[in-house]
Amino acid sequence: MTPNTRRDPVADAIDYFPLEHYQRPGIYRRRIRIATSAGQARADLEDDPHRYGVIVKHNGERVIGVQGIPLRTPWSLCRDAVSVLDRLVGMTLSPDPQEVFRHTDGRSQCTHLFDLAGLAVAHAARGTAQRQYDIEMPCMDTRQAREARLSVDGEPCLTWTLQRTAIVGPAPFAGQDLRSMMPWAKARFVDRDTFEAVMVLRRAVFISGNRMFDMDRMANAAATGHVSGACFVYQQGVAEHAARERGSTLDFSATPQALLADLGA
User: CA nearest 167: which of 156, 180, 186?
Assistant: First the structure.
């Protein structure tokens, strides 16, 4: 299968843990900030288990350099994924944040660094000076309906009522399933800003499942049971040696202002 036809690795790998694994009620929060300047775009992300950044250098037409910044990672070998980001060097700048998946295989990359690289490239192409996404997702019994919310630059943008992976409201999203909705979303939302917001919220909903279990109880990434080749660290031969970074998972339920605080206002 070529990079052009690969499915989203997180959607393929996601598995909602049963209720007995429930560990941390509260609110999952994720913040993404993208800033561009002449010849450069930087995208940063922080949530409970991650703090990453990516700097993309370009010449106005193509990517000429990529730097990954893994500041807080769930597993020790996640940091090594920065070495494969340079596979994006040479790609044409595109306003589509998913274009990176057509340039190289996302399964060999860190999902979060790769997503950030896609956002950085897209905002460099669109000429967006700055963008901030904030996501909040209450974590509770997944048998109950939940609301996932996304704001853009401080303004409410999307709210989805979810029953597990199914969106039950509002229109036009009602009836879509997070696992299979991306072709529909790309066809419906031709405006790249809107499509990107959908992409960002969907990813965050999947990652919010980290609150459902305690990774500090696991010796390495293989102990999660998800050695499926979905990303850099979940490859056979890597996951078994990717030690848990104990204490690296934080909780921003009551402190959203702390997200990306190291970047300043």
Answer: 180
Phi and psi (nearest 5°) for 167?
-90, 120
Model confidence, pTM = 0.91
Q: Output the average pLDDT for the chain.
A: 90
SS3 assignment, position 132: strand
CB-count exposure of residue 14 (10 Å: 0-12, 13-18, 19+): middle
In whole angstroms, give the CA distance from residue 144 to residue 162: 8
Confidence grade of residue 164 (pLDDT, cut at 50, 70, 90):
confident
Backbone dihedral angles phi then psi of residue 55, each to the nearest 5 degrees:
-115, 125
Burial 145-171 (b: 16+ CB within 10 A, else e): ebebbbbbeeeebbebebeebbbeeee
Cis peptide before 172 (omega within 30 of 0): yes
**Helix segments in 32-170, DSSP class H:** 99-103, 111-126
Burial of 102 (0-12, 13-18, 19+ CB in 10 A): middle
Tokens at residue 26, please?
């509260």
Nearest-angstrom CA–CA distance, 192 and 190 = 6
- Per-residue model confidence as pLDDT tens digits over 41-70: 999 999 999 999 999 999 999 999 999 999
**Dihedral, CA of residue 135, residue 141, residue 146 and residue 149, to nearest 10:** 0
Instruction: Tokens 């990774």: give the residue.
Output: 215
Host H or E run for residue 9: helix 9-13
